[in-house]
Amino acid sequence: SNPDGSKYVEMIIQKALDREKYPRLSLKLIAVDGGDPQRSGTASIDVTVLDANDNAPVFNQTTYRASVKENATKGTYIVTVNATDADSGSHGYISYSFSNLKEHLLNIFSIDGTSGVISVAGNIDFEKDKRYEIRVQAKDQGGLTGTSKVIIDVVDVNDNVPLINVMSFSSP
Questions:
Q1: pLDDT band at 160 (very low <50, low <70, confident <90, very high)
Q2: DSSP secondary structure code for residue 89 in this structure
Q3: What is the rounded CA–CA span in Å between residue 69 and residue 134?
Q4: Tens digits of residue pLDDT in 119-148
Q5: If you ran DSSP here, which 8-state letter would residue 92 be given?
Q6: Would you give the DSSP letter of residue 98?
Q7: Are 125 and 108 contacting, i.e. CB atoms less than 8 angstroms apart?
Q8: Cα distances (angstroms) measured from residue 149 to each of 54, 105, 156
């Protein structure tokens, strides 16, 4: 009640709202007077719950596996990583990147920040490394991140010629 005797109504949130569960709420407010006969009035209240950045991106796999030939050319497709974010708008927009990638690997692999496609960026040599383990990060516009691991097995090709070492002995 106001000091002048008029009445007003306040709606107070009792617990946190979750846009991912209930993006819209419809309420009906009914006011009843104390007369005889009793009279009432109604009002419909539609609430649109706005999104907060309360969900981090989640990869659809914890570990991705792929293989690539050691003579694969620059731009050769290896694997696509994929993450989703339950938030909407910019909070749900995801960009992909390598996480803590060693410097020598920056010249070997590349990732498309929008699509999550990982491809060959340089020379791969089976005789140097037979397997690579790379951490990939998905980051939303609000700064929340998710990570996954990518294991890339290198397939050997016949690219080395045999070496012959001849040793001779002389014995009387």
A1: low
A2: G
A3: 17
A4: 999 999 888 889 999 999 999 998 999 999
A5: G
A6: E
A7: no
A8: 23, 15, 22
